[in-house]
Specification:
The structure holds 3 protein chains of 3 kinds. By secondary structure, chain A is an all-alpha fold. Chain A contains 9 helices and no strands. Classes of the chains: A mainly alpha, B mainly alpha, C alpha/beta.
Amino acid sequence: MGPLFPQGIISEPVNHLIAVFIGLIFGFFLEASGFTNTRKLAGVFYGYDFVVLKVFFTAAVTSALGLFLMNYYGLIDIKLTFYPATFWLPTLVGGIIMALGFIVGGFCPGTSFCAASTGKIDGMVFVGGVFLGILGYSFTYKALFEKLRNSGNIGQVNIADWLGISEGLFLFLLTTVAIAAFIFVTWLQNKLNSKKDPQFLQDLGV
Amino acid sequence: MFKKNQYINPYIGGFFIGLMMIAAYYFSGEGLGSSGGFRDVTAGVVNGIAPKFANNSAYYGRLVEDGRNPFNTWLVFEMIGIIFGAIVSAALFNRLKFEIGKSPKISNKKRLVAALLGGLFWGVGSQLGRGCTSGLVMSGMAVSSLSGYIGLMAIFGGGYIFAYFFRKLWI
Amino acid sequence: MNYKMIIMKKNEIILLGFLFLLAFWSLFLPKKVWVYHQIPAKELHYELTKNDKFISVEDVAQAIIEKRTDLILIDVRDTSQYKAFTLPGALNITYDSLLFKTDNIAHNPDLIKVLFSNGNTLAQQCWFMAKRANLKNIYIMDGGLNAWFDNILNPQPPQQPYSNEQDRLYQRRKGLSTYFVGSKNAPSTPTTNKNAIPVQQIKKKESKLGGCS
């Protein structure tokens, strides 16, 4: 029964080796889905390419359903995994800052790292920016950020519990909404792009 | 091998990324992440240059306490894997080359400045929010944690709000 | 412009349909009530029938004298009884707080936890609760404080005829007793550690940071 490393079933070096393989496949599919292309990434906000929504929500639904069922049938014990506490305020504020970073920079840290690895210079600059941002944050942490970052702690909260429904129902609703969204945005994307310059579309592989 | 700019089906891509998220939790007990890897590398470098400072710092202290080596974490090894996975995919699809990805309507310089700024924002925001799209949102949603959904609303909601003001960068 | 808009290709429908089926399945699973890491009945029964859950008062006294840091004594009685008298260095975690998770040292699996009460009954009940919740490394001080009074604070010499074993035990008790009571009598034979509590090294666990937090 998982998780293997927290129970000592596998050793730390093995755990780290597996991490490399997981990263390999993760990085492969990020790049293969086009996430090193900032214009594709930004497309979800402008309506011409919804690849981000499709990949992201398929991944979220797959992993949420997978882990929920594995936990239910005893293949994994979620209580032994790292279950984050919810700090609603810094997460909200941080999220808005990250949103600005997404719109301006066109990447998030993971995709920028893939882009930098495959030769995208803007990706490399972005990666540098992330390091500088972390560095700056670390030096001003005590003065500026510490209080905010540790506020709003409401403990480990499951969203289904928070909404007052069962987790199975929540995941069913999530899946349904996701699939409906996929259908909607595909229609929307096709409609908006029917009026666009074909070269633009070809660059995006749409 | 493949014609230029061919991408795999997004649902299939998402499905395999989801499987990797499950694998991450199953083997290591933690989910996929990125900003944590950046943070660990930063901490490792700072600790290497000025260990005393790192140990006394409010921010780095907990990352280096008890002789922990920030380079020796799951996320750093995951990031190493990501490098090679991305390279393999790019090589397969003929995308492995040096270039600057941007809209043709803006200059290279403008793009790079924007990339730097974007990175800075992510550096700060991800530390405040305890993760980025993979570590905070996707991993959070994988275990149905409220934190992941707050992050989701904030990042994508905020994105739509800011999108109008920066549209010249993209369309 | 008239063209056929493909919303979803066949293989996409198959994949998303599969996920939808899983979601549908999840919807109808009966809700499991989380009873805190319950261990299965078979394992619980095995724990109940094993004989190594008791620790003698002599071994507890030894541990106190040695100032062992890998072991803690937990008084599970009411706070008023705890304040009236308890073992040196014992903590008070009442029977109704034992399973409360936050900051509860009883949940630390690396420490040896010895529960005690006046006799055996309350301590055993608490031991059972703790075992059911899969807490590790929990023992009971055999005989409780009553045995402590009888054997450590006021050890009685064995009655005639007595074996060497009984005499050794008495001498050991007398020796331990001097620490707690301050008697003038020194032990005549060296105390031996036949039933010593196994010394366990506390493994240095990597602090639980995890994820990107």
